Amino acid sequence: MPFLLALRRECVDGHPADAGEPLNDEQHLQRLRYRFECVEVLLLDSQSVGMIKLLRGSAVWEILQFQLSAPMQGRGIGRAVLGQVIAQAEAAGVGLAACVVKDNPARQLYESLGFRAVGEDMHEFHMRRP
After folding, report:
1. CA dist., res. 45 & res. 101, Å (int)
2. 13 by DSSP, 3-state: which?
3. For the chain, how many structural domains are there in total?
4. What pTM did the predictor assign?
C-alpha cells in the first residue's frame, strides 16, 4: 500500500483539470481501496513500477486506474501493458473503457491504440475501444 499511495500521489496530484484542492492521503487511500481486488502491481526486474486496476465485466472491461512511475513513462511500458490488456480483451470478445483526465498526455497513447472519446465531463474524457 505505501508504494500504491506514493505512485498515486505522484501521478494524480497536480493535474490542473482536477477540481478543488489536492487530495489528502485518506482521500487517495479511499480511491485506491475502491475495487482493490482488481489491482495488479506492475513489475520490471522485480521492482514495482506501476499499477493497473482493471474491472473485467462480461461485455466491457474498464480500466479504472493505470499509473506508471515517472521514470518509467515514455519508455513504451504503458503501450506494452495496454497492448496485453487489448489482446486479452479481444480474446474474451469484450470492449474496453477508460476515463482520461483532460490534461493527461496519456490520451494520445489511448487514441493510438484505438480508443476513441465517446463523451466527456468537466474533468475527463470517457473513452472506448470496441
Report:
1. 29
2. coil
3. 1
4. 0.85
